[in-house]
Amino acid sequence: MTGQKTAAIIVAAGRGERMGGVDKVFAPLAGKPVLARAVDAFQQCPSVDRIVVVLAEHNLKRGRELVEKEGWSKVSDVCPGGGERQQSVAAGLNRLKDCRWVVIHDGARPLVTVAIIESGLEAAKETGAAVAAVPVTDTIKLASEEDFILGTPPRQRLWAVQTPQVFRFDIITEGHRRAEGMATDDSSLVERLGGRVKLYMGSYDNIKITTANGLALAEVLLKRRK
Known about the structure:
CATH class: Alpha Beta
Low-confidence stretches: none
Number of domains: 1
CATH architecture: Alpha-Beta Complex
Strand order of the largest sheet: 5-4-1-6-10-7-11
Order of helices and strands: EEEHEHEHEHEEEEHHEH
Number of strands: 11
CATH topology: Spore Coat Polysaccharide Biosynthesis Protein SpsA, Chain A
Structural class: alpha/beta
CATH superfamily: Spore Coat Polysaccharide Biosynthesis Protein SpsA, Chain A
Helix content: 25-40%
Radius of gyration: 17 Å
Number of helices: 7
C-alpha cells in the first residue's frame, strides 16, 4: 500500500427487475440519467481521485458514451459487473491499485451529496470502515417463516443502511477475498472478519431507486433541493 489516493466504485450492474425491465440507472431524472447524477457527486468531491463505474455487459457502450458526454475526468474505468452485486464490487476492486480508501456507492442512489461522501471518509478514519445510514422511523418486527411475530427490536438501536460505504482498501479487499457466500452489502463482509464498522449519518433523501414510484419521489426531492 504505497498510495494514499481515494477511489470510488459506482455499482450499476443491476437488472432493474422491479422497474419492468427498464435500466433504472439510465432512466431520466430531471433531464439527466440517474447514473449521471450519482457520478456527478463523486466527480465534484475534492477528496475523490478516481472513479470506476461498474455496469452490466450490455450497458458498457452506453456507459462509456455517457462518460464522454459528461466529461468526467475522474472516471478511469467502465467495466462489466457480475450477476450479483458483490461480484460487481469485486470487479471494480480489481481495477484499482495504489489507493488507500475506497468509497462504494450504488448507482441507483442519485441524490448522494459531496457532504455525505466527505462525512464517510472522515468517519472511516476511526476503524477503517464506515457506512452511511439513517435511524429507522417505523417499528420493526422480526417474523417467523410462517409470518408470525417473533419479537420487536428496540427502534432506537436500528439503522437503515445506505451507501456510500467507505473502507480502507486492504480491509475491503480482504473481506471480498475471504467471503463465503453472498452478502447484501460490503460492510457485512468486514463484520465477518471481526472488523468494527462505524455508522455515520446519511440522509433520508438519499433513496435507492428500485421502482417507478421511487423515480418519481427522487424527482420531487431533487426539485425541492434546487
